[in-house]
Amino acid sequence: MPRGMFITLEGLDGSGKTTQIKRLAAWLERRGVEVVQTRQPGGTPAGDRIREVLLDARSGALAPMAEMALMFADRAQAIAEVIEPALAAGKIALCDRFTDSTEAYQGGGRELGSEVVLALHRLICGGLRPDLTLLLLPGFDASLARARRRNTRDEAQSGRNEGRFEQEQDAFYRRVWQKYREIAAREPERVVLIEGDLTVDEVHEQIVEAVAERIVLATHPG
User: Fold this and answer.
1) Helix axes 140-158, 170-186, angle to 10 degrees
2) Distance separating alpha carbons of residues 160 and 172, to the nearest angstrom
3) 191-195 vs 5-11, strand pairing mode
4) Residue 190 belongs to domain spanning
5) Is the peptide bond before 45 cis (omega within 30 degrees of 0)?
């Protein structure tokens, strides 16, 4: 059986990833493609517990290295439990965030640098790389404001506050933003950058165009 395809969506919180990954999954399924959706952190029972620690505002100031170690613990479990089985079964694995997020948030935002993140990725993830990464970078200010509003709304509805990262200062997010752009420039064959204040439909159109091209290339090489 041919190996499946691994697609990730990346971007700042509030960039619209959650909406777009759902729309992409529906678009693929309408075309008869088997899809497995997951997210990081989370997506497995162990990962969901790690997510609570990482995102809950009550966790306070985790040491940057501890934060990064938890991210990779979650990722290792997701690869073993969800991503690799899906790929081995010939399915498309759609993941909301992967190692690019760790490089951007911990490597850039926490200023740990890219080298330690990529070294841990090679060790813990066996070098597993997405076949395609869709990087959503709408306007910085609008994206961050949207993320903060969403967390306030979600806390009011559920009682859970997953806004630990949104409590960071804008300078932190500027570093995350810049690191994402560095990743896109470093790996243009993998990362498709979708930027600007586009409508939901306009972003979706660019996403399906990029995915359709890769599926055709994967099915009919050359």
Assistant:
1) 120
2) 23
3) unpaired
4) 5-219
5) no
DSSP string, 92-157: EEEEE--HHHHIIIIIIIS---HHHHHHHHHHHSTT---SEEEEEE--HHHHHHHHHHHHHHHHHH
0.85 cut: is pTM over it? Answer: yes
- In the chain, how many domains are there? 1
Find out whether 118 and 196 touch, Cβ atoms under 8 Å. Answer: no
Which residues 6+ apart lie within 8 Å of 180 measured at CB? 10, 11, 12, 100, 104, 108, 135, 137
CATH number of the domain enclosing 100: 3.40.50.300
Quote the CA–CA distance of 139 and 80 in Å, as a whole number: 35
As a whole number of angstroms, the distance between CA 28 and CA 8 comes to: 14
pLDDT in tens, 183-208: 999 999 999 999 988 999 999 999 99
Nearest to 83 by CA among 69, 97, 70: 97
Angstrom distance (rounded) from CA 12 to CA 187 = 18
- Whether the per-residue pLDDT at 115 is higher than 80: the answer is yes
How many CB atoms are located within 10 Å of the residue 79 CB?
Answer: 23
